[in-house]
Each structure stands twice: as C-alpha cells, then as structure tokens.
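Researcher: Here's the sequence for the chain we discussed earlier.
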Amino acid sequence: MRIISFLSIVFLSFVVSAQTDFGLWTGIETSVPLNKKVEFGLEGQLRWDNNVSSLEKMFAAVGTEFRLDKHVRTVLNYRLSGESYSPIYPTKTKTHRFTWDVNLRELNELFTDKSPLEVTVRLRWTNEHEVNERVNNYIRGRLELAYDVADGDITPYVSCEWFYHINDQIHYTATEVLTYNSINKVRLKFGSNFKLDDHHGLKLFMNYQRGIPDNDADIILGVGYKYEFNRILD
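Model: Thanks. This is the structure I predict for it:
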C-alpha cells in the first residue's frame, strides 16, 4: 500500500505540472464467463475532450479472454469507433481497431505466497485504421500495481504505460521511403475498482498522458459500470 501511495504522489505531481486539456471517459461493460478458461465481454464508451466541451469519440468493443493458466491470460478484441474530424466539423469517421493482449498476472506470487499487492504486466498489440488512411500499429507495455482491500471489494491501483508506434514517422527521399518507430506517448493511471456485489461493480480512475516529443498533456477522469454474468458452463 505504501508503494501505491508513493506512486500516487508522483502521479499528482505530474498532474499539477503540465495540464493542457481535461477530458472525461464514461463507459459500461459486461462479461460472460463461458467456462473456467474462456470469458466473453462487451464494452461501450463515450469520451469527451476540450475540457469536456465536445464529444471526441464513441466506441463499441467485443472481446474474448483465454486463461492459459493462473498467471497467463490472452485477450482478442475488436473495436468500432466514431471519431470527430475536429471540434469545428463534428462529422464522424469510423475506425476499426484489432487488439491482442498478453497479460502476466499476480507475478508477486512468484516471490511470496500471500500478499495483498498484485503485480501485473500487459503487452498489447493494436492495429487501427479507417478507410483510405494509413494503418496505425502500436506495441504497448503496461506495469500495474494493485492492492486488495476488504477481500477484493475495493482494489486501488496505479499503472504506467508506454505507446511504441510502428512507422511513427515517414520520410521520403529521392530514392527511397524511410520509416522510423518511436515511443510517442506515455500514460500514468491512478484508480480503484469497487465490487458492489457478485454482479455489479464500479470503476473510477484518472489518466495523465503526454505525447512525445510534442509534450501535449491530457488529464482524463474516468467512470465506468460493469455487470458480470454467472458462468454458463461448468
């Protein structure tokens, strides 16, 4: 818990130092465990930016999680988004995103048997594109520390994530096309999950994310609701 408190202070120091825009993300999701190894999920989200004055994006996503063992899970996900070209021209354009996650969970148990602190590492590959536009491929890595409070009913956490953009920059010369990969965004996240009962849960979080090298910073408040169904098969 002390580690999470320390990282939260670091997070707040970033927030105070460089705020350029404030956003709000609201979402609703549900999950259906098919059996002990496979879980199906649906999610919808609305995202506002420009100090919560305009709707930046809306999306619906569907995904399936496979639990390979206690510590390793993989997730396949598809997301359809509607995005604004600009605040002045609110016309929406559709984007398609395919995601593959590899989650290494509860890594703390490799070193100690009983600990309320949970360490998770996630590697994510994303492929996102729209019609007649360049495809954006990312490799994202995230480290998360969560602390179990009240037998899992309250779980505060902090995480740090970096975004590695494949072909982030393209330069044309007289004889060839040169492409460069780079980390173009870093995101810090502080939040908590609240389990209301066996089916209902709430999520509250705050993101601080900064672009590289332009240093555009965003602070995002997030709130979400989740409903979990009972397992369908034994």
